[in-house]
């Protein structure tokens, strides 16, 4: 179970983490223009959604239709920058909410608990009144996210220039550390850390406790680097601070070692869910409705994580082409695309040959293919570390619209089996993992 404190009664209220159907969150912004307190309400809803979805609970988050704020006041690029999924526009016909999130209590007739959000007190040197304006002294919106996560969500918070500077410094330092730890052999998350993290998020969304766990793990000499990496990656599924963003762009401690400086990045993507129309050849099968929804989400995920490809190699089938065409607009980039027939039905050795032909100027390659080739390629290139959670998941199942991100030594032409590190594995169910 996950419990929150009801703002009406000040009592603990359990939210089910194992249930059928959809858990409904209603977000109350209270302003026609999105201000910092409204952004904090969206952030609390986002953390709650992530925590519930880790437990397999489906969540529907919508804006309350009873106030002056509405979806038109929200900018998806701005929310993407803060790591927040854009909520739907609520209507009077929506199902009753299980939880209301906002600084002010919901209307008296509302059902569900009230998750209170403390107001954000700003100084003019920190953040403009309109939350869509980037802070002048904080180029990374995720530093603002970190600053807002650092205190209990129900308490007011001061967002000053010094607070943002501290958050920016901490975030940059963690990302550099994570990039170095990613080059070490993977080790499991320590059991006591995993238990403490689960207890913290189940205890009224105690994000300050999660951040304290990160500080503890980073400073401890008793944890191997591989365990530190896995811990930060695990907690980032809730915190969404893009802690792995610098992987591949930070010089490793062993400079001339197996990964060296600025390793190459290979993104392996299985096409999104396809349909099976009667009488249609396999090469011509289109995407199913679910696949047409999953493909753009892949693009958004790549963009948010900083994994934007320089070059794309795509199988020429209809379902792989449609996957690329739907995800490409989300990247804010125009990489070179090659439709290579060898990526259709290819085995591991043939796919490795395709990757070896990548031009030297390319640092990040996206390969869009099919099962079982994409899974076999990922497993063949990855160093076999049994304790690696990402590798275990990739080995168990590589579903449609899943992505595997590997860091590889250069050059492409010398790509060899077992030479890569699997730094991330994500499926549609991990939305925002």
Q: Can you describe this structure in just a few lines?
A:
The protein folds into 3 domains: 2-117, no CATH class; 150-253, no CATH class; 264-430, Rossmann fold, CATH 3.40.50.1240. It contains 12 helices and 15 strands. It has helices at residues 36-54, 76-81, 141-149, 161-181, 191-202, 207-219, 225-239, 289-305, 318-327, 348-356, 373-381, 389-396, and strands at residues 2-5, 12-15, 22-27, 58-63, 88-89, 99-102, 113-116, 120-122, 157-159, 264-270, 311-314, 336-339, 364-369, 403-408, 421-426.
Q: What strand order characterises the main sheet?
A: 12-11-13-10-14-15
Mean pLDDT: 84
Question: What would you call the shape?
Answer: globular
Q: Count of helices?
A: 12
Structure report:
- The chain is α/β, with parallel strands linked by helices and 433 residues long.
- It has three domains: 2-117, no CATH class; 150-253, no CATH class; 264-430, Phosphoglycerate mutase-like (Rossmann fold, 3-Layer(aba) Sandwich).
- The protein is 34% helix and 16% strand.
- It is built from twelve helices and 15 strands.
- The protein has helices at residues 36-54, 76-81, 141-149, 161-181, 191-202, 207-219, 225-239, 289-305, 318-327, 348-356, 373-381, 389-396, and strands at residues 2-5, 12-15, 22-27, 58-63, 88-89, 99-102, 113-116, 120-122, 157-159, 264-270, 311-314, 336-339, 364-369, 403-408, 421-426.
- The strands form four sheets. The protein has a six-stranded mixed sheet, with helices on both faces. It has a five-stranded parallel sheet with strand order 5-4-3-6-7, with helices on one face.
- Strand 11 (311-314), helix 9 and strand 12 form a beta-alpha-beta unit.
- It is globular.
- Residues 124-138 and 250-261 have low confidence and may be disordered.
């Amino acid at each position: 179970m996950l419990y929150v404190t009801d703002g009406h009664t000040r009592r603990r209220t359990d939210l089910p983490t194992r249930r059928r159907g959809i858990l409904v969150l209603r977000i109350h912004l209270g302003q026609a223009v999105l201000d910092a307190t409204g952004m904090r309400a969206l952030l609390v809803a986002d953390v709650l959604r992530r925590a519930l979805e880790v437990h397999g609970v489906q969540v529907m988050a919508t804006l309350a239709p009873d106030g002056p704020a509405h979806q038109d006041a929200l900018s998806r690029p701005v929310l993407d920058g803060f790591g927040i999924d854009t909520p739907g526009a609520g209507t009077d016909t929506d199902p009753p909410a299980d939880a209301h999130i906002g600084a002010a209590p919901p209307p008296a007739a509302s059902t569900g608990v009230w998750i209170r959000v403390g107001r954000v007190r700003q100084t003019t040197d920190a953040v403009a009144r309109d939350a869509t304006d980037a802070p002048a002294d904080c180029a990374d919106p995720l530093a603002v996210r970190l600053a807002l996560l650092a205190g209990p969500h129900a308490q007011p918070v001061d967002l000053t220039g010094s607070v943002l500077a501290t958050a920016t410094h901490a975030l940059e330092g963690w990302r550099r550390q994570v990039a170095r730890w990613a080059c070490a052999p993977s080790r499991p998350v320590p059991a006591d850390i995993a238990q403490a993290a689960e207890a913290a998020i189940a205890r009224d969304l105690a994000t300050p406790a999660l951040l304290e766990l990160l500080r503890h793990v980073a400073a401890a000499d008793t944890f191997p680097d591989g365990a530190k990496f896995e811990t930060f990656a695990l907690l980032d599924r809730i915190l969404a601070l893009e802690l792995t963003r610098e992987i591949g762009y930070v010089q490793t401690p062993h400079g001339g070692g197996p990964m060296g400086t600025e390793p190459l990045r290979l993104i392996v993507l299985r096409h999104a869910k396809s349909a099976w129309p009667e009488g249609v050849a396999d090469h011509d099968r289109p995407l199913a409705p679910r696949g047409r929804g999953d493909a753009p989400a892949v693009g958004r995920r790549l963009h948010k994580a900083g994994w934007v490809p320089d070059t794309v190699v795509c199988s020429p089938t209809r379902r792989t082409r449609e996957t690329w065409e739907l995800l490409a607009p989300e990247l804010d980039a125009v990489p070179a695309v090659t439709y290579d027939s060898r990526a259709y039905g290819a085995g591991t050795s043939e796919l490795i040959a395709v990757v070896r032909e990548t031009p030297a100027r390319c640092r990040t390659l996206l390969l869009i293919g099919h099962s079982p080739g994409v899974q076999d390629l990922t497993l063949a290139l990855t160093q076999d570390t049994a304790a690696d959670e990402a590798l275990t998941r990739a080995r168990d199942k590589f579903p449609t619209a899943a992505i595997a991100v590997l860091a590889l030594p250069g050059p492409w032409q010398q790509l060899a089996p077992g030479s890569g590190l699997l730094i991330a594995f994500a499926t549609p169910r991990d939305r925002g993992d």
